[in-house]
């Protein structure tokens, strides 16, 4: 079977969560014996063209434009779509699997892909119905992800396109099968009129996560998210102040400062060198990859109910799910795990076993292939 993946970002140019997850799924399909291609984007024309990366044939299409036009260009990026169609004609795929396409490849690519193959899409965030991070007051208070035109206007301001979501739904009509990476995302999509969605959680290859700590007798907390309020940076700062009052030896580390971020292998080592990992998002975080990566390396994780983390973490068994706005409670859970290394180790072992049984990449590949074959056999 010829499988062609669409993703705005993809390694080695980008190692964002969605890009890495798409890459690993593509590699899994390749190992399963299928012919795999990738269409992705880059910002500079000099970087565009064809290349091979880790046995994958990758086509890069250059595209860059001012962010103020995103609500329009993300629907139909004509220069990119024309080049995308040329590649489709050459590859002649059986399945086109779209992932994050809402910045550069554009939703129009779904309609074009349907002319040449069966089309599936995996939603990995809220961008199909939201203009950005979903963190409305209604959602944060009641987990109701339904957004109104007023929510969109407040979020997008002068960048608002009142027809955006209607056009997104129109293009989704060309998709044969829709997937979400969590039940939380499936529910949010349904609340915003995107239905008939199946759930396949992100999987990882546990064999790539076997590092051990290089440090001993330290009390290290690792905050692996970006340093912004949506990812909980402010929450972490306030909680850590409380932790330091009781445990002066505690140390907080982040994934990067001054514009320099840890690469993929450095991130793995940072997980291994920590006692626990924090993912205290205060926005809808569909399926935070950080959680399964940390658990794969045997580290307990403290996260929030906003999004899919609660589907990964077994509260009180592999980590904790807490209200991130209750900084005293977050600090309490951090102190609990730092003061009780045996409990933290037990949580870590349970977490790694949970990744092995519930978020195994090989099993996720099989699930997708089942749907691919069903789609391919339908008229």
UniProtKB/TrEMBL annotation:
It comes from the Bacteria. Residues 262-354 form the Glycosyl transferase family domain. InterPro entries: Glyco_trans_1, Glyco_trans_4-like_N, Glycosyltransferase_grp1. CDD domains: GT4_PimA-like. One of its GO terms (molecular function) is glycosyltransferase activity. This is Glycosyl transferase family 1 domain-containing protein. Residues 15-207 form the Glycosyltransferase subfamily 4-like N-terminal domain.
């Amino acid at each position: 079977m010829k499988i062609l993946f669409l993703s705005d970002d993809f390694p080695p140019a980008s190692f964002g969560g969605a890009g890495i997850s798409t890459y690993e799924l593509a590699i899994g399909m390749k190992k399963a014996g299928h012919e795999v291609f990738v269409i992705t984007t880059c910002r500079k024309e000099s970087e565009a063209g064809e290349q091979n990366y880790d046995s994958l044939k990758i086509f890069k299409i250059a595209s860059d434009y001012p962010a103020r036009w995103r609500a329009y260009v993300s629907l139909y990026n004509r220069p990119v779509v024309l080049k995308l169609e040329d590649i489709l004609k050459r590859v002649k795929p059986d399945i086109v699997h779209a992932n994050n396409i809402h910045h550069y490849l554009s939703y129009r690519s779904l309609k074009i892909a349907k002319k040449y193959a069966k089309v599936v899409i995996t939603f990995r965030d809220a961008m199909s119905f939201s203009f950005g991070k979903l963190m409305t007051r209604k959602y944060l208070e009641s987990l109701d992800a339904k957004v109104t035109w007023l929510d969109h206007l407040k979020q997008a301001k002068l960048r608002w396109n009142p027809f955006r979501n209607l056009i997104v739904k129109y293009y989704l009509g060309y998709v044969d099968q829709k997937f979400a990476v969590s039940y939380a995302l499936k529910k949010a999509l349904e609340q915003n009129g995107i239905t008939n969605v199946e759930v396949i959680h992100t999987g990882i290859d546990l064999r790539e996560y076997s590092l051990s700590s290089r440090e001993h007798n330290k009390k290290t907390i690792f905050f692996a998210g970006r340093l912004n309020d949506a990812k909980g940076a402010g929450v972490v700062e306030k909680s850590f102040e409380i932790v330091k009052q009781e445990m002066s030896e505690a140390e907080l580390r982040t994934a990067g400062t001054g514009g320099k971020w840890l690469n993929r292998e450095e991130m793995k080592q940072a997980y291994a060198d920590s006692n626990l990992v924090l993912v205290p998002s205060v926005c809808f975080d569909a399926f935070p990859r950080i959680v399964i990566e940390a658990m794969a390396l045997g580290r307990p994780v403290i996260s929030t109910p906003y999004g899919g983390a609660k589907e990964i973490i077994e509260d009180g068994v592999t980590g904790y799910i807490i209200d991130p706005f209750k900084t005293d409670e977050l600090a309490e859970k951090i102190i609990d795990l730092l003061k009780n290394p045996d409990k933290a180790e037990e949580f870590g072992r349970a977490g790694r076993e949970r990744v092995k049984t519930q978020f195994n990449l090989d099993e996720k590949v099989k699930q997708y292939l089942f749907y691919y074959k069903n789609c391919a056999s339908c008229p």
